[in-house]
Amino acid sequence: MPLTGIDEQAYEDAAKQLEVEVAVIKAVANVETKGSAFDKEGRPTMLYERHYFHRLTQGRFSKKNPDISNSASGGYGKFSAQYAKLEKAYKLPPDAALMSASLGRFQIMGANHVNAGYATVQQFVTAHRASESNHLDEHKINTRIQLAPDVDDGVRSIGSKRHCDLVPVR
Q1: Which of 29, 110, 145, 167 sees the fewest Cβ atoms within 10 Å?
Q2: pLDDT given at position 151
Q3: Which pTM does this prediction carry?
């Protein structure tokens, strides 16, 4: 089973590095995973994104496998079906399958593994499976939090007089 939980100091350190309030990081975590970084089987919370797989494989599997490869986003289905979709796609190009899944507490796309600090998507997945604290890596969070275009770069506080948007990077 993976190590679960993120201590307050880790949140505070990440908030300082990102120049945001801890509440911003926790809000992203809660919205993305409804409070759980792992499923009942100890796997990282995951959403399989069939439109990513379609794009990464130039649609060559879409006709026979529209449930795992489709030009349209959506069609996610139940949470309980996500790993079955990933496993089916993994039997085709494995890296494309892993890059088509958003994982963990902050639902970072496997396709963003380099931005998250990993050389390979396999390393990214392995880190997500091992420990929830790995999900809080500054580079991972940084791929999820972006300021709205009309906000000065120095304004990064959700409680400030100016506004801050949290934009999913997918």
Answers
A1: 167
A2: 37
A3: 0.82
